[in-house]
Amino acid sequence: MELRDYQWEVIGPALEGKNIIIWLPTGSGKTKAALYVAIRHLEIKANAKVAMIVNKVHLVDQHYSKEFQPHIKDKFKVIAISGDTDEKSFFANFVKKSDIVICTAQILHNAIRSDSEEKHVELTDFTLLIIDECHHTQKDSVYNKLMAVYLEKKLKGERKLPQILGLTASPGTDRASTFDNAVDHILTICANLDTWKIMSAKTSIKNLEANSKQPKKQYDLVPQRVEDPFGDKLKELMLAIHRYLDDLEYATDFGTQMYEQNIVLMEKAAAENANRRARTCAVHLRKYNDALFLHDTVRMKDAYDLLEEFYITERFIKNSKDETDVYLYTLFNDNTGELLELSRNIKYENPKLKKLEEILSEHFQDSSTAQGIIFTRTRQSTHSLLEWINSNDSLQGLNIKATALTGAGLSNQSKHMTQNEQKEVIQKFRKGLLNLLISTSVAEEGLDIPECNIVVRYGLMTNEISMMQARGRARAEDSCYSFLAKYGGKESQRERTNESLEVLMNRAIKYVQDMPEREYEEKIKELQRDSLTERLVKQARIEMNKKFSASDVRVDCRNCAAAVAYGDDLRVVEDIHHVNINPTFKVYYEEYTGPVNLRKKMENWAPGSSIRCRFCNAHWGMIMIYRSLTTLPILNIKSFVLQTPESRKTYKQWKDVPFPLEQFNYGAYYEDNLSDSEDE
Predict the structure, then answer these.
(1) 3-state SS, one letter per residue, for 494-535
(2) Which CATH number applies to 229-348?
(3) Whether the predicted pLDDT of 351 surpasses 90
(4) What does the domain layout of the chain look like in residue ranges?
(5) Whole-prediction pTM value?
(6) DSSP label at 45?
(7) SS3 at position 620
(8) pLDDT tens for residues 100-110?
(9) Which positions ≥6 away from 37 have C-beta within 8 Å?
């Protein structure tokens, strides 16, 4: 392996066994530098074993096939394990047989917590832990949960701990407003990773600059629509819904994130108060707000299609005769003709699209090898932009071959991409079969994407880390990074704030790098002790919050407030899935689709149909076919309200509910059901 001067500089302390963070720009070869450290570690240290952990599934195979396997070949045994592979079921066995394990942080965390002999490992089974995109090692991230295990062992005096090597291009500032806050953020990440030092290029800075080109940045700002009859009509319908509710408190700032936050609170309060009328209206108002977001991002047609699909689905699924549902369906029906006509009037089309057409034309006009990425906020907008590009005759004449690239997580908004689908898109992009990606944030960090000539951040409001990661994709010679937004909008204000935060981050890192050794060590120890104390207090608070017995908590449908279960009907399967084991629960729900397509293989179960409330047709979750024998309904906590002896309350996650949840005992459940069937 040949390394550049700056790579040799940053890995020096790691070769001596010290814990460090490598801080280098995107595309400068951090993974290759880490790979060299791993090889030397295995060659020198007795009984060495390396784990490289990543925060996204697709990075497992990428690091294996692009970096580790080609360089290591037969010298060491390397294995890649993710949620999409069968090896995770026998994680401990594969760890024993391998020299290097590349896996997601979640897989390793699950294995450390597992009681299964086939899965369980200790963190101390590894002698070197490489943490990709290590700036995520904070708060409640899975990286930080893993490092919490490490720090607990360290503070108890255990010496057999793995060496830590963190990799990042952008530690960020955690939206610090002062220099001191930015320094605290950097020190916190260093403490969480037990870092001896943050390493960056200093003596070899010119070598880094020569091999890490920065793109030209331009602000492409466009005026707002002079007239917007389509948007005005959507707002008029939203105002009508507020009047129907006789509630004008939140009837302002339509189409903004502030309005969305207010409507989320309105829906939550209505659910907790069993006010179905207000809750139903809040759900519809949020969809209108989503349409305004899309209208501001892409075409009027896309916003109209979003609403039309929503109302078709609502009618099909609910088929409701409820007064509020009928009012909302009728309101849209009575105005659908006018909305459709307005959406077809190109006079009022989104000016950002014209500017985007100019940018793409400029970069693809005279180059047969040009490649680019457009970053946008949602999966819905990626698909809408793709449809617009494919229907634009001018752009199609430039031989633009575009596709969407989105995340693998499940979403109600649109379908997710599997790891294999993501891999296929990137391979085609690398081979030139595709030359333009329209992507959500999934392409910002980690993915092995070729150097791009043009990167467009399309009306985004994100933090400085996202800005730096996206900009790092524009690495081709004379490349361009465009920020496209409206004049005077909050998006361009945020982008300029991000530029200031990047400067602040650089200052904070330099300050931490230059701190006197003793002062730095004392600060790191203090932060680590504080972190451990904070985790203990938090855990105690969680235990205190489990103040009700399961039998005293009633589970109601969030939509219609029907009482459908009690807390003692619920069990937790494999620490993840929350199911109802009461056989009488069947009278409260119905199955209304074929098997749900999760687009990946599950370990001990397969998905069955979606389920919904038998009274109001609200979606509740899905059927789990466990071990090919047992049918259990998995419930989404967001679909329910919990009635406790004190109050009615909604929850976003099962871990926050105010009563203890029992683990599912398959043997006992099987025996109970077998005896019940024999009695019959």
Answers:
(1) HHHHHHHHHHHHHHHHHHHHCCCHHHHHHHHHHHHHHHHHHH
(2) 1.20.1320.30
(3) yes
(4) 5-211+519-532, 216-223+350-487, 229-348, 550-679
(5) 0.90
(6) S
(7) strand
(8) 999 999 999 99
(9) 11, 14, 15, 128, 130, 165
